[in-house]
């Protein structure tokens, strides 16, 4: 706030306070010539009379005390422009202090799980319950309370992982986030294969989930394969298995992040997709991120008994 605005706020507050005090003083005093309190000429039902009496002195003094309290409050806590107040209090500092205290309590709660291997945490019911609670508070907004996702948000309860399903890969996803980009290929494909090029590619992509299907008598799919091999193979691979380093999905399964309809596939190819998983390292910290990663990993991996050698060293079957 500039000095000009600061003085403007101070002047406005001062005028309001002085105006209220003057109005209270002016309306509370009686002047010579004022009619008697009972001389209002307002009567109802013959025996009900309206009086015009001043407020009791204790009530008026209460208003003055409230004004004095307001002035003291402004000087103590601030509110006069850029003046911070004698106490130097601010809601931001109070929030940071309370946050630090809560974080200390949380750190003590989670200390037992610091650095623990994710399979080991997944095998511990208490740790898994903590991870589920963190998931419900942080991740369920996008992935759903059951972690089964929605259109555009991955299902975390199956065994399909666009960025890899190994424990440390899941932890990396939670900590650092992911950004998946499917470029716009509509104009490129049309320029290479004509107006129906996108439909040719869609026809071929659908055959990838049907191993052994012959393309010999399928003009659309066979034409689409040539276009796929020239454009799509760089990310999704020759066999369509995708690339977890790039987040390129496997096209040979029956899972479609944005839907499997022809309209949805056409939208994906023509206009591309841009998916962002936010980084949660700063929000959760390493231990809580590890716990939620363990919970997510456990959804598609049966945890080994806690304390066993396999619990510390197991890798998921993918």
TrEMBL record:
Pathway: Energy metabolism; oxidative phosphorylation. Residues 126-209, 219-300 form the Cytochrome c domain. Keywords: Cell inner membrane, Cell membrane, Electron transport, Heme, Hydrogen ion transport, Ion transport, Iron, Membrane, Metal-binding, Oxidoreductase, Repeat, Respiratory chain, Transmembrane, Transmembrane helix, Transport. PROSITE patterns: CYTC. Coiled coil: none annotated. The chain crosses the membrane at residues 6-26, 58-78. Its cofactor is heme c. Its main location: membrane. It is found in: Cell inner membrane. Binds 2 heme C groups per subunit. The keyword Repeat applies. InterPro entries: CcoP_N, CcoP_N_sf, Cyt_c-like_dom, Cyt_c-like_dom_sf, Cyt_c_oxidase_cbb3_su3, Cytochrome_c_Oxidase_Subunit. Signal peptide: none annotated. PANTHER family: CBB3-TYPE CYTOCHROME C OXIDASE SUBUNIT FIXP. Component of the cbb3-type cytochrome c oxidase. C-type cytochrome. Part of the cbb3-type cytochrome c oxidase complex. Belongs to the CcoP / FixP family. This is Cbb3-type cytochrome c oxidase subunit.
């Amino acid at each position: 706030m500039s000095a000009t605005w600061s003085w403007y706020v101070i002047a406005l507050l001062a005028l309001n306070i002085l105006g209220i005090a003057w109005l209270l003083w002016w309306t509370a005093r009686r002047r010579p010539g004022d009619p008697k309190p009972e001389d209002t000429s307002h009567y109802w039902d013959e025996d009900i009379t309206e009086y015009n009496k001043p407020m009791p002195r204790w009530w008026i003094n209460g208003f003055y005390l409230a004004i004095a309290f307001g002035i003291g409050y402004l000087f103590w806590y601030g509110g006069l422009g850029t003046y911070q107040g004698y106490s130097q209090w601010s809601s931001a500092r109070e929030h940071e202090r309370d946050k630090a205290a809560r974080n200390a309590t949380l750190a003590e709660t989670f200390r037992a799980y610091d650095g623990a291997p994710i399979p080991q945490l997944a095998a511990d019911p208490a740790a898994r319950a903590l991870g589920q609670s963190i998931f419900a508070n942080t991740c369920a907004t996008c992935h759903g309370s059951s972690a089964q996702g929605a259109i555009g948000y991955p299902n975390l309860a199956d065994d399909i992982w666009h960025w890899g399903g190994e424990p440390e890969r899941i932890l990396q996803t939670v900590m650092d986030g992911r950004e998946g980009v499917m470029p716009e290929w509509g104009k490129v494909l049309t320029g290479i294969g004509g107006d129906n090029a996108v439909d040719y590619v869609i026809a071929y992509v659908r055959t990838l989930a049907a191993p052994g299907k012959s393309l010999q008598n399928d003009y659309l799919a066979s034409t689409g394969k040539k276009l796929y091999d020239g454009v799509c193979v760089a990310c999704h691979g020759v066999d369509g298995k995708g690339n977890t380093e790039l987040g390129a999905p496997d096209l040979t399964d029956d899972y479609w992040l944005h839907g499997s309809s022809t309209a949805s596939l056409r939208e994906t190819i023509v206009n591309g997709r841009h998916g962002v998983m936010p980084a949660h390292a700063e929000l959760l910290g390493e231990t809580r991120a590890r716990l939620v990663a363990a919970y997510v990993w456990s959804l598609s991996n049966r945890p080994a008994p806690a304390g066993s050698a396999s619990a510390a060293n197991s890798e998921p079957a993918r």
